Structures are given as C-alpha cells and as structure tokens.
C-alpha cells in the first residue's frame, strides 16, 4: 500500500511552502510515499502546467535522484523512493513546479525516518557493517591471534605490544 500526503499551496498567499511531515517514515520501508501539492487561488483550482521536478536528500546526506514525478489537473506529485528511507534521521524533499513562463512553485518537506532497530547500525556519515560482518571480522581476528600465538609458542619469534602496535621479532 502506498502512503499519500498532499498539501495545498494557495498562490494568492505565496509560491513556496515548508512542511514538517513528522515521524512518518520507517528505515527500509518498502512502501514508497507519494508526496503532492494541490495548487489553488481565490478563483479555485489552478491547473499545473509546465514541468515538475523533485529531489530528496537521505538522512546521511546522500542525494537521491531522480524521483518519479507527475501531474494531473491541479495536483503535482513525486514518489519518495526506498533509497531515501535507508538511514534513520531527517530527510528532505524538494518538489518544484515551473510553468512555461518560468514561474516556480516550491514545496520543501522534511520528515523523520525512524530506526526499526535491526539491520546495520548507522553513523550519520558512514554506514557501519552489519552485525554478521562484524562477528565474522571478530572471528578472523581470534583465528589470527591463535595462529600468531602458535608461532610464538614454537620459539621462532617473540611478540609484544607497544601501545596499539604489535611488535614481532624473529629469533635467529
């Protein structure tokens, strides 16, 4: 099921609006959201003519594009794709309508992507490996440590730690 949110911009009051979508998204959501704008003025509905463009910025700062857009009658819309919902935190969506005279109408929307508590933990700038990858890396470290200890036990080398550096000396 696709979730839809539409906002009305009254052209008599301005050509831009900012909307807080709230905490309505979930990390990794497979149901994209349709975000739309209804154009009106004091005379009623205003037909959308010209072009519709949209872009999104995921919570980790990565631009997500291109977004699917469309228009019909007085409504212009975009689809917020899964890629924009991959990271918990604040996402931003920009929906711009331009008529043939380059008169622009802009909707800036932002909302929170909630973590679902599983999958990869995320640092806002860089994704961290999955828990399975971290567990595998820890097992590899244990195996390497055991192999190194076996070599030391054979008396061929000595090993010591200096700060965060492992120092291995060959015995001749």
User: What's the Cα radius of gyration?
Assistant: 27 Å
**Strand composition percent:** over 45%
User: What is the annotated CATH architecture of the largest domain?
Assistant: Sandwich
- The end-to-end distance, rounded to whole angstroms, is 71 Å
SS content category:
mainly beta
CATH class of the largest domain: Mainly Beta
Number of separate strands: 14
User: What are the secondary-structure elements, in order, as H or E?
Assistant: EEEEEEEEEEEEHEE
Report helical residue fraction. Answer: 10-25%
What is the secondary structure topology, with strand pairs?
Blueprint: E1 3-10, E2 16-26, E3 33-41, E4 44-45, E5 51-57, E6 63-64, E7 69-72, E8 75-80, E9 89-98, E10 104-114, E11 122-123, E12 126-127, H1 131-153, E13 157-162, E14 165-170
Describe this structure in words.
The structure is a single chain. By secondary structure, the protein is mostly beta strands. It has 2 domains: 3-123, Immunoglobulin-like, CATH 2.60.40; 130-170, no CATH class. 13% of the residues lie in helices and 50% in strands. It is built from 1 helix and 14 strands, in the order ββββββββββββαββ. It has one helix at 131-153; strands at 3-10, 16-26, 33-41, 44-45, 51-57, 63-64, 69-72, 75-80, 89-98, 104-114, 122-123, 126-127, 157-162, 165-170. The strands form 4 sheets. Strands 1, 3, 4, 7 and 8 form a 5-stranded mixed beta sheet that branches. A 5-stranded mixed beta sheet has the order 2-10-9-5-6, with no helix packed on it. The chain is rod-shaped, with a radius of gyration of 27 Å.
